[in-house]
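anyone seen this seq b4? input:
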Amino acid sequence: MEDKPQQSPTQPQQQPPNNTPQPVAYDTNGNPLYAAPPPQQPYVAPSPQVVHLSRAVDPVHQELTPEVKKRHEQSLRDHPHLNLSRGEYIILGVRRHMIGLAVPVGMTVFLIALTASILINFSLITATMAVVPPFGPVLLAGIMFILLVTIGGYIAIWVYMNNKFFLTNESVIQELQTSLFVRKEQTVSLASIEDASYDQHGIIQTIFNYGSIRLSTEGDETTYRFSYVANPKKQIAILNNAVEAFKNGRPVVG
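predicted toks r here
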């Protein structure tokens, strides 16, 4: 009978040492307290994240209401020379006061009347002169002068009346005609208008109720001025209401 080899009792496996510090006590809130501060973990910088944004090649146009379409099309028909954006329409159109024509019209009428008077009374004027110039060349020169004064007066009136000021539901458009061949257009968005005011100076402006409109923009501090505006108080009230509605996201009506 063979003796079976005796097996040694199973030895317990040794656990790896635990390097995690154990708390020695707990505070009143149950938070552990250590004899020494726990070792700081090395800082690992987070990996950068890349976010890709894409947008449509063609901009998405907001749907226009039938009323906006109608007003936009009407504005294009009435003012085809204006550069209106999609859905933009004119709320207010301001022309210069007729009082500003007093000087060019007055000078034109005065010079024409004076020249005509000289031609009519030519014989009386030259009665006391020793040498009387021939009437033919004088008449021709007088007619040419009257023609030139008439053309000059018409150009002055045309230039004056072609200075216009438009308020739309998106911007303010100012057309400036400084001479026969010099013209420029200024467009200011309602969002960039910081201040809009008017002023009247003197008894003449007060009696005839005209003045100047002044617009100040944000950022570059640019000031725009439009003079000889009829009833400027009413015009500036409409403009301020439009600016406030636009900045607050409300529809600009007028």
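The beta strands are 25-26, 32-33, 90-95, 164-168, 171-177, 183-189, 193-199, 210-217, 223-230. The first strand starts at residue 25 and ends at 26. kinda curious what u guys think
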